[in-house]
Amino acid sequence: MKIILLLAFLLGMGTLQAQEKIQIKDLVSEEVIPFVKVLPVQGNPVLANLDGFFELNLSEVTAFQLKSSGYKDTIIQVAMLGNDRIVFLSPVYSQFEEIKVVPGENPAHRIIDQVIANRKKNSPTENNSFQYESYSKLNFTMDQNAFANIPADTQDSSLIGLRSFFGSQYLFLMESSSTRQFMPPGRDKETINAYKVSGFNDPMFATFANEMQSFSFYENQFQLLSKTYINPIALGGTRRYLFILEDTTIVGMDTTFTISFRPRKGKNFDGLKGQMFVNTNGFAVEKVIAQPAEASDAIDVKIIQEYVFIEGKKWFPSKLSSEIIMKAFKLNPNLPNSHIVGKGNTYISEIVLDPELRKRDFGNVVIETAEDAGGKSEKDWDSTRFYTLNDQERKTYKVIDSISGEYKLEQRLNLLSALLESKIPMGYVNLDIRRLINFNQFEGYRFGAGLETSKKLMKRIVVGGYAGWSTRDQTWKFGGFNEYRLYPKKDIRLKLVYQQDLVERGSHEYHAESSFLNSKEIYRQFFMRNMEYQRLGELMLSGYVTPTLKVKLIGNYQRIWFTDDYRFNAHTGQVLTPNEDVDVAETAIEFTWVPREKVMQLGVKRVSLGSKFPKLQVKYTHGWEGVFESNYDYNRLRADISQEVSIRGVGKLNWLLSAAASFDPVPLFLLNVASGTRLKGLGLTVVNTFETMLPSAFYSDRQASLFTRFTFIGWKTKLKFFAPQLSVHHAIGYGSMQHKSNHNVDFQTMDKGYYEGGIIFDKLLISGPTSLGLGVFSNYGHYADPTFEKNLTFKLSLLTIF
Q: Model pTM?
């Protein structure tokens, strides 16, 4: 038996040694060609993998044929193979005629129906836990087609420079390795163990490979560069897509069908086109090539995925490839196709199905960087890489690191990061963009400036201040703050504020966290009309007490001066006149809870990936009479619940339910104002507001509002500046006021119910990152005018990519 086993072992070794690896490349660009069909003269056909490699026993084969869509069929004689074992295919530059489908059952659809029926069984994130290691590499360079078009004898110095640079190195290179664990239905954790980026050391680049494409091709909504497309194999796929059976390959006991897909004519959705390789073993996706069905003038993206059959149980992704062509970035206007191209590959290894995982090992952090991830040695990298670095890659790290140091690229990246937070770095201080110019109905235009210390001066302490002057009330406002970042990983901060400024009458706002450029409430400030002067001293402690629950503890003391002839008659008989100031002392607690929110923890940076569940915010405030000179004892409560729900192939629904209450007789500035954003002229539409209600028209001691807006997917047009998108708006509000006679100013309550609806046509005019649209709204019910036309409100819609 030992002799037999030894002979079997030696025979197996001989067979393995006879198997040789051959790679297929494009003759023009010298790029690898994935999934080429290889037909040996003797033996069974095989498919090349994502990297263009396949294996053959050359001692038993005299020739083989290569077949791939877009390339000439080619026969290779084994005797003519070079020592490098690389073969080339010539691309075919021709236009294919429109495919006509004749009546009858489409054989491809019969196969795709099986794929859809087996989606849940074959999906990597269904049924089984798993664990794997991955290695990713991404580079940016010039399109190789352009490189090949540079004449060998050119005298153009710019072309010579491009050829010299890109012939020896890349423009950008990054690598990362990670460990991922997953437990269905949604427990997920990926730890980035190492990352290396040419010219930078910021961990934000370490996640770039994850953001290029969805992990598997079984998601209903497939993502490419964060844009969502409806998957061809989502439910109802054969109604949306046309599938064509192009080829059939028999390998052993299984058959692989090559099927092309593209959206059907007349269908209005963001779709994909490409090829899918379906294996009859479970009718699973074995390989896929996909890209957006509609080409972009700015960026084109193409992805490839390859799957392997693991442990005799299920098909699992083993290689993911992405290609980005940045058409908007042309390196030489006189050189065709001289775009910047990014190419990335992720290799998945050491896959284990159903490992022993524990629920308590998972949290809401789905991606995090290890503490030493950015400082791995070359020895560590040599044991991590799938392929050793070539001369181009080694030179890229050396040259780009040197350029980065000389031109301070890391600092420039920090500048961009600060700009997204509405700051302009100026050495040891940052200029606050939000303070430069503002506008509201009370102040008119407000001009000013704000400065705060940067991380260059102090990493965990921020000291800042501002001043501003407005045109209508011609009054200076100013303030300052100190913020101490006690524990950045949990975002625990202590903040002290002093300011002499304005506060909206009847507001009970949450403390804002989003930056100026990202806030959906940016336009809300424009409509503030009734305001009071305020002197405020405040102390706030905030941080995450659980991974999804943030708490803020607040204490402040305020002195308020009224800005008009407002008077308040308290139950005690005391009359508050405009000549008197009001002091209030408050404590408050504020909660923000996002159930099952997913986040990335990149060093000390916390980046939210959102949640499928509603977001809940609650703020409770108590006023203390008798603290120093404070005049009132009161309780105020506000609660908001909101959500964005995407409906595949239709659009998305945004809704907000907001309620507020003041439980004690207090002046109007401590009650609740309804959020109206109508002006006499043509205004701007503002989400989660009453579009037909004048600002500061309705006050209540108790009120509730429901705002809904459904945005349909946009219409596809061939015009770059016109891509209309319809939204439907509806809002309902109720309010009550128990002691309206205590206040000497005119206002309404919503006790009869305030109702409005409207439609918005967005993207009627598109220019760069900005688009203009038009909306029309009408209120109805008790507060509506008997003349229908007087209820109509017309508004502009302004959308940006920010």
A: 0.77
